[in-house]
Amino acid sequence: MNTANKLTMLRVALIPVYLVLWYLDFPGNNYAALAVFVIASLTDLLDGYIARHYNQITDFGKFMDPLADKVLVITSMICFCSMGQFPAWALVIVMAREFAVSGLRLVAVDNGRVIAAGWSGKVKTASTMVCLCVLHFPISVLLWWVCVIVIAGTTLYSGIEYFVLNRDVLNWNK
After folding, report:
1. Which of 35, 71, 95, 116 has the fewest C-beta atoms under 10 angstroms from its C-beta?
2. How far apart are CA 10 and CA 2, in angstroms?
């Protein structure tokens, strides 16, 4: 297993640690969970850089890296949602987009085509991770709404873009 894949697996391993810290009741648990979330998020940047820079791109990494990102982000949103600190409708938008894009990719693969991650998807992931970090702090209602709108907006935009740019994959006559 190469370094990029090890970093991806570290991100996966940090998800239950984040969850446990989130729900443990001790002073500063929120900030401990935040620290783990930040470390996990940074492994996403680092493993992508290492994979491209040192030619460590693998099929495992192509599959597991975006899956690790999705599980990390959705886990955090569910935690916030369970505490009434994140709207369920925004979580549904994120989950629906992830299922829809994954489905589109499966159809594309079935047709012998691979849909690479686009820039809007990378912007969506990065801005979502930053906003989720911000939500760990006591913030104003205005900043809270900005974070929710950024998460929902970038998610919707990137999902729509994936389907518009790859609409030829969906052959309605087959």
Report:
1. 116
2. 12
